[in-house]
Design goal:
246 residues, 7-stranded mixed sheet, 14 strands, globular
């Protein structure tokens, strides 16, 4: 299975990173729909798409407005956008208001009510995260592998979502701030490096990829990863265009 990182910045894009969007082309799944959605067109392999939104902040959803153009010549059987019911209602009313966007792309809103089965046998579950306005994380289990996606949450060694991500093969977790910014992280609902490494270790994850990077930090390693190698060695910083096999 290949996970394509289409957008790995938080808040706004910069010269190197777009805002959150991850894609599993083999099963037609996108996790969040930030500005990185513009990269999905050449990766579409299926006649259906399932887009799972963590929440409705603009950096995670604006890519929904790109769908009409990106798929204009693709014969799609189904496009579903999954998320919490109140968030989907807000997007339908506001993002797709006729004053902001004249024609809604041909997708169906699908409020999260029960685990979602994927065509390839995967099962998607979600769990609550603490973030201003509320958010959810996702876990996808296949018979032979698993993936968890946690963004816009404040990591702590005893995070309430630890059980939900237990023993995943790949943990994709936000890391907006370097260590030393813990108060700001808690205020804004984001994470610093060392607590994220502890979450990966405590959960039993096999691999950690960091996303939702501060767009003002343009250096290759804005965190100093060596500081957490003893806590959780298999840690990488995600970048746009990276393909992670798991």
């Amino acid at each position: 299975m290949r996970l394509h990182l289409l957008g790995t910045a938080g808040y706004h894009p910069n010269e190197f990173r777009d805002t959150p969007c991850l894609m599993l082309p083999e099963c037609g799944v996108l996790l969040d729909a930030g500005t990185g959605m513009h990269r999905m067109r050449q990766l579409v392999q299926t006649r259906s798409l399932d887009i799972f939104l963590t929440h409705a902040h603009l950096d995670h959803v604006v890519g929904l407005t790109y769908l009409t153009g990106l798929l204009y010549d693709r014969d799609m059987d189904r496009i579903r956008v999954h998320g919490e019911a109140e968030k989907l209602r807000a997007l339908d009313e506001h993002l797709f208001s006729a004053f902001l966007f004249p024609v809604r792309p041909p997708f169906a809103w699908c409020p999260l009510t029960a685990p979602v089965s994927l065509p390839d046998g995967g099962l998607v579950r979600w769990f609550p995260l603490q973030h201003p306005g509320g958010a959810v994380g996702y876990r996808i289990d296949w018979p032979d592998r698993s993936l968890a996606y946690v963004t816009d949450a404040t990591a702590t060694p005893d995070a309430v979502y630890l059980d939900a991500i237990r023993n995943v093969d790949l943990l994709v977790h936000e890391c907006f701030f370097p260590d030393g910014w813990e108060q700001r992280a808690e205020l804004t609902g984001h994470s610093c490096l060392t607590p994220v490494a502890h979450v990966a270790r405590q959960s039993g994850a096999r691999r950690l990829v960091l996303v939702h990077i501060n767009p003002l930090a343009s250096q290759p390693d804005p965190f100093g990863l060596e500081a957490v190698r003893e806590i959780f060695a298999p840690t990488q910083i995600g970048r746009d265009g990276m393909v992670v096999e798991f």
